[in-house]
Write a structure and sequence with these properties.
Elements lengths: L13 H8 L8 H15 L8 H14 L12 H15 L6 H18 L24 H16 L5 H10 L1 H9 L4 H7 L6 H11 L6 H19 L5 H11 L6 H16 L8 E3 L10 E4 L4 H6 L3 E6 L2 E7 H15 L9 H11 L11 H9 L2
Parallel strand pairs: 1-2
Antiparallel strand pairs: 2-3, 3-4
Length: 383
Amino acid sequence: MGFPTITSLPRFPNDTQRKLDAKEPCHRVPKHRNKIVRTLYEMMSQYTMFPTHQDYVQVAKALILKYPFLKDLDGTGYQTWHMSLKRKFKTERAPLVDDAKVMKYKEKYATKQSRKSNPSDLPPQPKQSRLSSECTVIGEDATSIEAHVHLLLEQFRKTQPDIIIVKDRMTRTFPWRRREIVEGISVAELIKKYPFLTTPEGLHDEVDRIHPAPVPIFRRIKENFSTVLPKLLDLVKDSAPLKKIYLSARSDALALEHAAIDMRGGIVLLPSVFKEKIENLIILGQDQPNTPYPTIKVKGQDWRTVIAEKAECVVEVDGLCVCSCVGVEEAFITTFCMYFVFNMEYPTHLKNTMTFIQRRLGQIFLNGEKLSTPMTRIINLLH
């Protein structure tokens, strides 16, 4: 029996249906979300235990079309429902190992997987670039760029550089600089030639050139982080070690210091929301980064200092101390900006954290970029 075109959805359990009829976002409550998924599974399993991608999409779309308030806040709008249904079917199929049809599909799938997982069959995976290899430089040549760079170096040596001149020359050299990055200039060579890329303001301005927006990137991330901060802090269990340190620092502080402590506490706790480690983003004291990716190094010796005080920080990249920052707040945004400025892909151990900063806080959306289901869920929870 083929899977039919969905013209209507089944009725959900009474308590869940009442909330849906009242347009309550009950999908944020696990009990009601599970009931919705289970009911859709029961409807679909009448026709097949192996729905196709199109079958899942059809049902998920029908759900959010009828109940728009169940829509994901990012991506396709139905991705988390799609994945929840797939997991439900996988779970329900697991006990059916003796079923001939199930075994047939398992064997077919396993054959495909073994072919895919053979390393010798896979081509080498080059580092993907965020940049096009064709960066147009209009009205400039090597001689004019050299003159601009010379002026920038002169300004950098001054105690008080002329900000107007600096921004003008950094803008004029921007396309040329991006081409140099595509062609493989090292971080060390780049910051030696363009030393304003070793300042927080210079790095923030560069991202604003890469992704122009009405609101500058520094302000955008800070303001958007403030809006999600209360729910983010609630999302982390009070029993978590870093959450205990944050709560202790907050209880000992004056009321006027609470906002700053909340911000720093949120930064320290953010990776844990995605089951990633803060030590991959921030290290303490004399420890050395174990990765070439941008890493915040705080001069304080403990996490309480990081959260309670505006501690002095540096950001290291590829073994180089690139930038000094005042407080983990500035370092947090500056570290994110370095990925775009130096054209670095997010490392797997911080991919979700950085993607969240990029999309939810920085409002930067890249062509062809797809969100993981855990990421979409977190964005929904923090809305």
